[in-house]
Amino acid sequence: MVTIKKDVVCIGGGIMSVTLAKLIQELDPNINITIYEKLSSCALESTQSINNAGTGHAGFCELNYTPLNKRKEVNIERALKINREFEVSLQFWSFLARKYKAFKPKSFITQVPHISFVKGEKDISFLKKRYEALSKTLSFKGMEFSRNKETIKKWAPLIDVKSKDEVAMTKYEYGSDVDFESLSHEMLKILSKSKKFSVHTDNEIKSISQKKDQTWNIKIFNIKTKDTFLVNAKFIFIGAGGSTIHLLQKVTLKIK
Ligand SMILES: Cc1cc2nc3c(=O)[nH]c(=O)nc-3n(C[C@H](O)[C@H](O)[C@H](O)COP(=O)(O)OP(=O)(O)OC[C@H]3O[C@@H](n4cnc5c(N)ncnc54)[C@H](O)[C@@H]3O)c2cc1C
């Protein structure tokens, strides 16, 4: 069996592998990076736009990021952390947009207000506490809260609010809608400008094992030609979405 040598192999062609590949390429353009994807194109699984809600998770509307603690106070630490992480993604995309003319943010990111809507006194009290805690911070400054049905109708015209309902809403104007499928293709476009990068679709990773020298042997099946071949890589990243756990379970490690 022919063995192909690589520096980095990313398994799966979703947003995670593509992002990591681009980060590595920016850090060192001489590193040889290859993505192997089992489907006929990249970004067709969870990353495909039809398969996820597409909110850029920044903690503006996700109520589960601000749980109540034992003293019934809202803990905002997780929302702040996620918000900071999303800011880093925004900075990375804006860096790429400045560096590469071909990388077009308009094709994958749109400004969309993020709203949270609740009914009933218990949830209204929670939303108000959440709003009071978050809006004091710099990251969430400008968040709005309302119990007024007219305001809520204006913010979210498609929500049917009955006159008997007790309701509340928060709105943060500068939320984002992110099309991760288009983003993946934008990044693949600029990644592919380098001869040190390649992406191979219709190639399924069957098994991974670590050699004594700490490099990795990856057994790959080409779905079109029905050939099986071996790739040896210094580093691997398993970005196989839901299949990651199955691949990890198959990994053979050489422990000294
Ligand atoms: C219903 C739903 C809603 C979501 N909403 C949001 C949201 O609003 N905001 C948000 O930020 N995130 C959201 N997510 C999460 C987001 O979509 C995922 O976290 C992200 O797309 C995962 O990307 P990934 O690259 O890890 O995986 P994937 O996109 O699944 O990519 C994995 C790739 O690996 C390939 N692969 C698998 N096994 C192998 C193998 N053996 N050999 C070669 N290739 C292989 C697959 O074909 C696939 O292309 C949502 C997810 C779901 C399911």
- Radius of gyration, in Å, reads 23 Å
| Low-pLDDT segments, ≥5 res | none
Biggest sheet descriptor: 6 strands, mixed
β-strand amount:
25-35%
Helical content band = 25-40%
Q: Which strand order do you get reading across the main beta sheet?
A: 8-2-1-11-10-9
Kindly state the number of beta strands.
11
Put simply, the count of helices is 6
Description of the structure:
The model has no long low-confidence stretch (mean pLDDT 95). 30% of the residues lie in helices and 25% in strands. With 256 residues, the protein is of the alpha/beta class. The protein has six helices and eleven strands. Helix 1 runs parallel beside helix 5. It is elongated. The structure holds flavin-adenine dinucleotide (FAD). Flavin-adenine dinucleotide (FAD) binds at residues 11-17, 36-39, 44-47, 51-55, 57, 180, 204-205, 239-241, 243, 247.
Features:
single chain; 256 residues; alpha/beta; six-stranded mixed beta sheet; three-stranded antiparallel beta sheet; 6 helices; 30% helix; binds flavin-adenine dinucleotide
Helices and strands in order:
Blueprint: E1 3-11, H1 15-27, E2 33-36, H2 77-99, E3 109-111, E4 114-119, H3 121-134, E5 144-146, H4 149-155, E6 167-172, E7 176-178, H5 180-191, E8 197-200, E9 203-210, E10 216-222, E11 228-238, H6 244-250
Parallel strand pairs: 1-2, 1-11, 2-8
Antiparallel strand pairs: 3-7, 4-6, 5-6, 9-10, 10-11
Helix pairs in contact: 1-5
